[in-house]
Structures are given as C-alpha cells and as structure tokens.
Predict the 3D structure of the following.
Amino acid sequence: MQVTLHRAHERGIAEHGWLHSRFSFSFADYHNRERMGFGVLRVINDDIIEPGSGFGMHPHRDMEIITIVTHGMLEHKDSEGNHGIISAGEIQYMSAGSGVEHSEFNPSDQDRTELFQIWIYPHTKGLPPRYEQHKCDAESMNRWELLVSGDGRKGSLAIRQDACIKKAHLYIGHTLVSDNCKPGHGRLLLVMSGELEACGYTLKARDELQILGEESFEITTDREAQLLLFDLPMHNAPPVGED
C-alpha cells in the first residue's frame, strides 16, 4: 500500500474578507503543479462564508458538485429553477452536466456558514443537469455512513461516477476498518475534526492521506474525530479548465 500524507498547513489559502477558503488542490489563484487532483477528484474546498455573503450566479458544466454543510446554512438557486436551503448536517448534490448557472449564499445575518465543497469529474459529459439534497444520519457514531455513490445504494446520493464518499463520527477507543479497494481505484482520507491514527500516521483536523492499494486499513482514535473517506477511479481526468 502506497500512502501520501498532506498536512492541513500545506493547503492553499484564499482570504477575501467575506470568504475564507482552504484548498486541497489547485483552485482559482492557488496553483500547485503537484496538487492538481486525485484521480477523478478535482476539488476539496474548505470554505467559511460570512453572514449575508456568498457567490452570485456563475456557470459550471460537466462536473459533479457535492456540498457538505457543517455549520450554519447555505442557500442555493440555479438556472434550472431549483431553490433550497442546505443546513448543517445536510448534503447537496448538483450535477452541472451540459451547463448550469447557480448562486450560493449564506442567508443568515448573524452566523457564519462552514462547508466542504467537492468536485468530481463525471463518467459522461453533456448530460442534463440534476439537483438533490438530503440529511446526513445524525446517529452515524462509530460506523460508516455512505453519503454518495455511483448507484445510490443504502440511500446515498447517486452521482454520475463510480465513486463513493463515506462519513464517520468516531469516538474514543473505537476502530473503523475501510473496505477493500477496487483495482484502478484510490482512497483519500480527510479528517474533518479531531485526531485519529491511520496507516501509521497521527492525523489532526484537515490532514489528509492519499492511499493507493487494494487492501483494507484500520482507523482508530484516542480522541473524538469526524472523517470523510473517498473511493475514486484513478484514471486520467480531463485537463484542468474544462469544468
């Protein structure tokens, strides 16, 4: 098993007053030729949006966009007529497909919005846009919750890619074991909060492991931790700039 560690302080940074962003991969004005994505995973952005602020209408195409709100609320509107408020503990999915414009705003005049936004290249270009949102399982303690998959199994959001994202809330003294990985896939472990042990490393909040190899691995903690685990095709993704 081949493991690559990226610490939280190594991520890209953008500060815009109303928006505070940290980038796992090259994005906007942050460019790192060594960090252009991981297989079909193009973006993991860790954003904080100040009250009453947000992104005006802007276009996307041929990208699977997943937003996980961890604090506050996010208001979504798009050119397909979809409108929703995504609250902490909810996940939103927008398949940009053949082209869509959308806006994302923090509707609160008091509270910040905190979220992870994830972009994954689809298996097929030019499909009609799609939009969905649902609640995460508040009881996913010491077990995996499947948020996203390619086939919608176990009540997950079905995206247009053979990829999955799992979430877990791990308590002190508990152990989780990953599934084995398909040939041609890789896994990425991101610590949302807390501290844990995996693959011989101690990982803290926003640290990340990229893992190549098919065998399973254990995740343990002496403290409380929340984590995301991605399982993704590692074939060549489209060049940056086609999103």
